[in-house]
Design brief:
About 20% of the residues lie in helices and about 45% in strands. It is built from 3 helices and 9 strands, in the order αββββαββββαβ. Strands 1, 2, 3, 4, 5, 6, 7, 8 and 9 form a 9-stranded antiparallel sheet that branches. About 15% of the residues are buried.
Length: about 130
């Protein structure tokens, strides 16, 4: 009986250990729309975006507290989904989305906050990332 309990405890603790990775992501391409302050016109722009480090625990992604996706840490609405035979991790909030393919290391992100709230000069943009785990 003790051996059975020991085996059950070992199996339960083995499953509790989540796969942890750290991703170093570099922006490859980006595009956005910038609203001119004095007019209602929008112009296509690109940005200088910093590299970022993402910590992955299972399907949970943790972004830097001073980075682009700090608001995703608040709810961390992350889940695994399958898109055309590839499993990706997708995290989203009401105004941001980040998708990571752990197999290829490719990621996409977008934000739409500037379009939704005219008090900010933020702009909607999309970034394509190349990530390496270490």
């Amino acid at each position: 009986m003790k051996n059975i309990l020991l085996i059950i405890l070992l199996l339960m603790s083995w499953n509790a250990v989540a796969d942890e990775k750290t991703w170093f992501c570099t922006p490859e391409y980006n595009a956005g729309l910038l609203k001119q302050d004095d007019s209602q016109s929008w112009n296509a722009v690109s940005f200088t975006i910093d590299r970022m480090i993402i910590k992955q625990t299972g399907t949970k992604l943790e972004f830097a507290d001073d980075g682009l996706f700090v608001s995703l840490n608040l709810n961390n609405n992350c889940y695994e989904t399958t898109v055309i035979d590839e499993t990706i991790i997708s995290c989203s909030s009401s105004t941001q989305m980040f998708n990571l393919n752990p197999t290829s290391g490719l990621a996409t992100s977008s934000t739409i906050f500037g379009w939704l709230n005219s008090k900010f000069n933020d702009t909607p943009f999309v970034v394509l990332w190349k990530c390496e785990s270490f």
